[in-house]
Structures are given as structure tokens and as C-alpha cells.
## 1
Amino acid sequence: MTADATGSVLDDAWGHIPQTRETSAGLGSFTRRRIERAIALAVAFGALILGIQAFLESFGPIEEGPGWHQVLVIGTFGPLALMLLACVIGRGVRFFAGLFALLYLVALLLWPIATRGGTAPVPTAEPWIWYLVNVGTVAAVLAFPLLVQLGWTALLPLVFGLVRLIQAGFAQDFWIPVLLDVSFALILGFILLTLAWVFRSVSANVDETRARAVESYASAAAAAATEQERVAVAALMHDSVLAALIAAERAQTDRERTLAAAMAREALTRLANTEQDPEEGPDEPRDAAAIADEIEHISGDLGVEVTVERSIDGEHPAVPGRVARALILATMQAITNSIEHADGEGLAVAVRAVADPVQLRIEVHDTGRGFDLEGVPDDRLGIRASIIARVAAVGGTTRIASGEHGTTVRLEWREATA
């Protein structure tokens, strides 16, 4: 199966999947990316509500000592605002969520020190920093791997309970309220963590199933295309090539030999154009400059910008139309192969022509990893039929040199001299 056929199969399969900027990076992250975006927006919404509540509470009775309140408020709400902004715009979510989770833990650890000399705490009234405990746990869900998420979801409520008891001097009046607060934070934190894990697992399974389905579809379509191509080639060989061989064997006169040669040339042309439209068009001569222009134009349609290097001696050297078409099609096949198998690395095309007698040479060169021409399977017609046979059908020659430093395909046609 040719590189063109393989590409068309994959393009057709990919066309069944909605395309956006987020999915162009890879098929395997189609659903996962959207789930991550939805989780980030949901976290932003919930964190905004709790953040506003905590911020308003920070204007109430201040439990921190002199100078500590402003430091903790700025050090906590500043990173929170950056995290909310990152979640909304969809950029830098992991970094800013991780930053808030770490700085909030630091604020909790500093709480016993910050509250020395401050207002005595009340057992039934939670400080403003309490309202952000579960914001810190969901920030860990956005930023860290699963094991760290589990640890963080358990750590923050326990740290809050410990620092709250230290602040109150482990007074008995605080034990039950603190245990209730810690229990509530643990339950809510693990519920949120479980929901995020479930959604992510489902999205990963959906992406994996979709990728397997597309791969299976592409393999089936490729197998069908290969079989159709083999049938077409077999029919051509039977109807055209064998007929030409029989005619050549039976030829007795010069005229019969000439007709047999024409039949063989036509058979090779049909074989080379198996995947092309059967119409060949007029045979009016085309000059080398026009051929170079068309190569540049068709290359643009393939998605690569190729500037053809031109070296044209004499006044408008021209070749027959059928020769020009064959050389252009063979050149485009060589360019397609370079794109498919060498990623178009170092791709360059050169056209050289002289006028008397007319000689035309086209070289396609890339700096990819190269290949072993003898190792190409017999059923791959991209080189043998679409390049070598096509050029041979119009009386031209093909030379292919490939190695670790790249591949060069040289197509030549020379006007027959009397």
C-alpha cells in the first residue's frame, strides 16, 4: 500500500473525531483535557465562594498577634487569587494550584506562632483560615499526583486541628468543636478527591477506547485498500502487461515490434497511474520553469512550502506534456514519501534543464534517516510504480540513493537524438 493510501486512511479516520485546538496535540487526550478543564472551573467556582467567605471573616475579630494578620492574609489570598485566575484562563493551573497548596500549609504551620499574644479564641467560632482547608485539598487535586493528593487531603485537616488545639492550649472546650471541624474537612476533602479520580478514570478509559477504535478502523481500511490495490494491479498486469508481452513475442516485422513497444509503454503508464485518474490530458510541450512552478504549487497543497532551485540553460527548454505530467507526479510521490517517512527533514527540490538537446533532471533530497530500497515490500507501490515505473513509461530514468545522511531521488529525461 502506498504512502498516499495510508495517509488517506488515517486522515479519514481522524476526520470522524471533532477537531479543536485542544485535541490537535493528540488523540489520546481528547476527553481527559476536557475533564481537566471542567474540574479546574468547578474548583475555581467553589474556591471563589469559600475564598470570599474567608476573606470577609478576616475582617472580623483578629486572633493573630500584632503584624501577623496582614502577612498571613496577603500570603494566603494572593496565591489563591492567582490560582483562581489560572483556572479561569486555563493556563498554569498546576503551578499556581501547587503554590497555593504549599503556602496555605505554611500558613497553618505558622498559626500557633502568629496567634501568640492575640485575642483568645472562642470554641464555637472558627478563624478565617479554617474556611480555606478544603480549598487547599482541591488545589492539591489539581497540582499533585494521586498519592500526594491522598496525603494532602488527610494532612491539611489534621494540621488545622493540631494548630487549633495548640492555639487554645489543648483546652477541653475545644476538643469536640475541633474534632467536628476536622471530621467535616476530611469527609468533604475525600469526597472531592474521589469525584475527581472517578471523572479522570472515566475520561482516560474513553480516550483509550476511542484510540483503539480508530486504530482498528484504520487497520481494517488499510487492509481493504491494500486488497483493492492488489486486485487493480493484477487486472492491469493481466489485461495490459501480458498482452504487451504476447505481442512482443509474436512480433515479426519492425511495425509489429513498434506496436508492441507502444503497448508495453502504455501498460507501464497505466501501472504507474494506478492510484491516479485515468485521464492523461494533452501532450503539448511544457517548459522547465512551468514544471518547477507546478511542483511548488502542489507542494503547498501537501502542506509544505518548497522553493524549487532552478538551473535552466538555453531558451525555454520544453518537454512533451505526458513526460512533464509523469515527472511531476513522480516528484510529488517522492516529496510525499519524504514527508511521511522522514518528516520532510531538510526537504529540497532542484530542477535542472538544458535546451539542445532537451534534458530535464529533477532531484528531491531530504536529510532524514533513509531506508533500504531492497528491503521495501513488494506490495508497496509508492516507489516502484509511482516513481520508477511512471518515469520509465515515458522513457526516463530514476536513481535513488538513500543512507543514514538522507535520501536523494533523481529523475531524468532526455530527448531522443536521431
## 2
Amino acid sequence: MSSAELPPPSPVRQLRLVVAADDYEAAVRFFRDVLGLPEQAAYSGDGDARVVILEAGRATLEIANPAQRRMIDDVEVGRQVAPQIRVAFEVDDTAATTERLVAAGATQVAPPTTTPWQSVNARLDAPAGLHITVFQELRTPDERAALDGFGTESA
């Protein structure tokens, strides 16, 4: 693709998911210290106001219609469990990450499962009321794009 064919850069520079955690210390320990999200910044203010911003690698916004949401739940869990918002983290080893997170207090909803789209996904309920997926990609984006049903909406 030549530079003349490249899409214009996005006007959005960062996706930041903001989560209010009743047990702030437990949530920070879980996501920073156990899952391993590096701390980018932390701020405090009057009345014990505190926030920590954790790096989570590349951010994407996945928008799924109700049929896709049901299909993902069926594949990963075998039943409908996901709330409207589910947070997914790509990791190097789904099984080892799941074990670490469960040992740190997460509740396993479904064990690591190989999906039809060639990733290994596990579901957990995590601190701060988050329903999460940890996933390990088994194929590169180019390999996946060659599979039936994969591509882009604009293609």
C-alpha cells in the first residue's frame, strides 16, 4: 500500500477505560502486580482521592452485535454470562495467566478454551466488578485474515 493509499491518522490518541473500584488497593494489586500492567502514573487529591493509570499495551474498541456477544459467550463459556462491557487482555500464556489471576482472587468463569478464531480464551470475574477475558493468539493477524469470516468491515 502506498502512502497515498493509507487511511488518515485517527484523531483519537488513546483509549482509557476508567473503572471505579470500591476496594482500590485490591484492584491495583490485581491488575498492576498480578496481571502485570505497568504503572504509567498515579495521582492523589483531597479526601483520599486516588487514581492509578496502568499501561495495557495497544488499545482497541471491540463493538459486537447481540448475536456475536451470544456466540462468544457460547464458545468461551457455554452459556450467556457477559455483561454489556467485558474487558479483554491479550497475554502470552492464557493457562498460566488464568492460574495466577485465580490465585490472586479472580473467579474463573470458564477455563482456557481454544476458539474457532484460533485464540485461547479464559473468562474470569475480577476485582472492581470487571468481567474479563484473557486471550492468547495462536495465529498472526495476516493468517487470521485469510480464514473464512475474517477481514474488515470496510473490505
## 3
Amino acid sequence: MPKLRKPQDGFNLAFLDVMACGLGAVILIFILVDFKAFSPDPTEEKNKLEQELAASENEKQKLQKSIDEINDKIAQESARQDEAEEARANSTDYQSKLLQDQATLLAVLADLENQKAAISKEVEKSANIQMQGTGEQNYITGMKIEGKQIGLLIDKSASMMGDDLLDILGKLALSDGEKVSTRKWLRTKRIAQWMIARLPKDSKVTVVAFSETAKVLGNNTVSSARVKSSMQAIVKDLGSVVPDGGTNLQIGLRTLFSANPKITDVYLVTDGLPTLGDGLPLKCKSFISEQKSISSDCRRELFAATITKAPQGVHYNTILLPLEGDPYAPSSYWDWSRITSGTFLSPAKEWP
């Protein structure tokens, strides 16, 4: 019987197994090597994240700086708006006060006109001097010349030749003969004569004409209203006065009370607030060149300083011939007359 051949499959399978395992091992090695090759380096990743974080922080700081700048601008603009609003409010209040003062003056003037229309037209026969004209133009209601010791202050500054700045400047170049013949100055002299004509017979009077300087008019510093020649001498001196210079009310008052310290009633004829005198605020002075004009606010402050130096216990009365460009004059003289129990009048242009 023939011998059977032993199968050789066992060897073949074992060989294949070995080869497969080897191949698998090689593949596994390649996989591990490739994974490690493409694995990120933790140090590089950290550096990259830190750079991105630093960039973000810089961007944040820039944004915060921009926000702070915007907030500052908003705060500054808000502050400017608040200041502007406050300034508008103050301006509105001040305008309201001026309108109220103006309304008060207009009401007073209307009342005076009504009283004037109702008074008698009889010409006073006991006048100290003769006045031309008859009827209502020879009288004015509310201004009664009274007192035992009377002082008349007549403003003879250059502004007493005109009603506005251009008009006044145009008259500065006139001759003295032409200046004393200007319409406003002629009216001023008539007002002074009107007061002299109505002085009480038993009164004593001192008349002073003032501008930058002051002068007592008449033969005596204190004259008796009963003596007709004394009154005529005052009128004559007034006729030779030439209007010029600025308005120094302080020197006018000093001259008046130096001539007669017993004066109890002062009657002032002027057209505006003073422009010269002691007590002018520092902000109103010019240290570079001589100042040719003075603002309305500075004139008002100078007037306040002037009346504080004026003798007390005296009745101060004012006849104002308003000058354009001096808005505080009516209310200022009104207050001064009111607090001293005097009278304030701003008569119509046709009077007296």
C-alpha cells in the first residue's frame, strides 16, 4: 500500500501569520511616527495664544482710550451747553428787568402828562425872572422848586449840545458862539431859567455849572431868591457858559456843597450818567492810552460810586434830557431821586 503524503499547509499558514504580524507592526510604526510628526508642539501653541492675547489686550486698550476721549468731549460739550444756558437765562432776566423799568418810567410819564393837561394855564405872576411863552409849556407838573437852601446843578458837558454821539461829535468843531446856540443847550438854559423863576422868595440858592470843571454862577456863592438883581446875574453868567468836556458829577457836587454846606434840596439838569470821577472801576481804566469813551456798565458803576460820596439827608431831584446810548441813566437817576425823597422827570422835547 502506498504511503500517504503529509500535508504542508501548517507551515504555509504559520509563515503567513508571521508575515501578517510583521506587516501590521510596520504599519503601526508608520501610524505612530506620522501622528507624532503632525502633533502640534505645545510650546508653539502657547506662544501663539499669548501673542493673540497680547494683540487683543492692545486692541482693548485702544478702544478704552477712544471711549475715554469721547466721554471727555461729551463732558466738555455738556459743560459749554450749561454755561451757554446760564448766560441766556441771565440775559433774559436782565432784559426783563430793563423792560420792567422802562414800563414803570412810561407809566410815570403818562401820569405826569395827564396831570399836566389838567392843571391851570394861568402864568405865575410872582416869578423871579421873566420867562417868554405862556400856557402849559411854561409849567411842568410834579417838579416843584422848594426848600430853604437850594442848589441848582447844570450839566455843561459837550453832550449837552446833541441827542446822540454822531450829533455831538459833529458839534465839537463849532465855534464857542455856535456851541452856545445849539438847540439842546438853549433848552438847557431855559430849564435853568424856569427853575430860577420859581424859587421860593424866602429861599437861598447856589447855582453851579459843571463838566470836567465846575463854576459857581452869579455875584455870590449863595444868593437870595428875593433879590432880583442876583437872579439876573446868575442868568447872565449862564448865558456865557460854553458846553464842553466830559461829565464829572462828583466835582459838581463838591463845588455846590463847598459853596453852601447847608443845602437841603438839589435840582440837577443833565442828560446821562457821569463819565469822569473818582471810584472808576479798574476794569474801566486804560493804562496804555487815554480812554476816549466809557461803556454803559462802567458809567453805571461810576454813578453808584458818586452818589455814595454825595452828602446825605438831601433831596436830590433830576430833570433828565435823555441821551441815546446811555440806557441805564433813567432808572439810575429815578432810583436816586426816589430813595432821597426827590423827584425825577424826563420832560417832552418841546418843554419848556
